[in-house]
């Protein structure tokens, strides 16, 4: 093991939008009794606060100032987790498509990545955590004991998002939703700082034709083997 951590190992789950990171991280954390850190929610909180403050997505000085005064926390609420930005519950407000696209833009800015990198390392250092995002296994915790790169075809990821939006009563079409997924992939993969890419030592899982339970079984067995607990069967 690369480091002695007080509470257990660090599990990194990276991958593109709609691959199933949030769903799987939540379930795996429950199975292992680990803490779940949704780093996308942290970037989303910065995006929301920058929009409210009228800070442009390329205003690095403004974004740096904003991050200096921002505290993001997660609090458990029954089965789910609330996201607090300076104490305010922003869990719902950060989940719109508009904030998703804005987040993709501001998360490319160096001061934002630096500020959140420090926060994420502090949150995960003791282990016993699963962090999900785009650069956990490559940048935030390159020494994480277990790394997954979860993906699925853009069509399938767009279809999943479309079903979520339709359930919320959103009018978006399937074609538009797939196009937005592809646009976000290009922004996240093409940026200069901490682009989305698979860590060399990550286990790649393509969930296009797998159910959530099937992906969960692969992940849980992989982590338990790493913990020396053998196959869960
Ligand atoms: N393997 C899967 N099969 C079918 N639907 C899935 C699968 N994984 C995730 N989903 C669904 O796809 C949507 C997006 O998943 P989510 O966990 O939010 O992805 P991400 O965090 O990677 O953006 C959710 O509605 C989720 O229930
Ligand atoms: N570790 C991370 C997590 C998210 N981001 C960026 C890239 C994404 O487009 C946005 C939103 O991420 P989020 O995981 O919430 O988005 P999805 O739920 O996958 O659609 O944030 C990042 O750059 N680095």
UniProtKB/TrEMBL annotation:
Matching CDD domains? CMPK (cd02020)
Name of a matching Pfam family:
Cytidylate_kin
Q: Which InterPro entries match?
A: Cytidylate_kin (IPR003136), Cytidylate_kinase_dom (IPR011994), P-loop_NTPase (IPR027417)
Q: Which reaction does it catalyse?
A: CMP + ATP = CDP + ADP; dCMP + ATP = dCDP + ADP
Q: What is its main location?
A: cytoplasm
Keyword DNA repair assigned to the entry: answer is no
Which residues participate in ATP binding?
15-23
* Species of provenance: Geomonas propionica
Q: Quick one: which gene encodes this? A: cmk
Enzyme class comes to transferase
Subcellular localization: Cytoplasm
Please report the name of this protein according to its UniProt entry: Cytidylate kinase
What's the domain of life for this entry?
Bacteria
- As recorded in UniProt, its EC number(s) are 2.7.4.25
Family, according to the entry, reads as follows:
Belongs to the cytidylate kinase family. Type 1 subfamily.
Lineage, top ranks: Bacteria, Pseudomonadati, Thermodesulfobacteriota, Desulfuromonadia, Geobacterales
The record ties this protein, via NCBIfam families, to: cmk
* Keyword Nucleotide-binding applies: yes
Query: For the Cytidylate kinase domain, which residue ranges apply?
Result: 11-223
GO terms for MF: kinase activity
Keyword line: ATP-binding, Cytoplasm, Kinase, Nucleotide-binding, Transferase
């Amino acid at each position: 093991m690369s480091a002695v951590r007080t509470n257990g190992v660090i599990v990194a789950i990276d991958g593109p939008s709609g691959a199933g990171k949030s769903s799987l991280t939540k379930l795996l954390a429950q199975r292992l009794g680990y803490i779940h850190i949704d780093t996308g929610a942290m970037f989303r909180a910065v995006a929301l606060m920058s929009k409210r403050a009228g800070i442009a997505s390329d205003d690095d000085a403004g974004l740096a100032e904003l991050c200096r005064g921002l505290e993001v926390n997660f609090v458990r609420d029954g089965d789910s987790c609330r996201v607090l930005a300076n104490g305010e519950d922003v869990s719902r407000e950060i989940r719109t498509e508009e904030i998703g696209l804005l987040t993709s833009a501001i998360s490319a800015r160096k001061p934002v990545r630096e500020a959140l990198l420090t926060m994420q390392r502090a949150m995960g250092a003791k282990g016993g955590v699963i962090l999900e995002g785009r650069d956990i296994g490559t940048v935030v915790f390159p020494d994480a004991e277990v790394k997954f790169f979860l993906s699925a075809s853009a069509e399938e990821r767009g279809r999943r998002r479309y079903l979520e939006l339709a359930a919320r009563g959103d009018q978006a079409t399937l074609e538009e939703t797939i196009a937005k997924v592809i646009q976000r992939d290009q922004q996240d993969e093409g940026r200069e700082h901490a682009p989305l890419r698979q860590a060399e030592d990550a286990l790649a899982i393509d969930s296009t034709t797998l159910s959530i339970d099937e992906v969960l079984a692969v992940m849980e067995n992989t982590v338990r083997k790493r913990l020396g607990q053998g196959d869960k069967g």
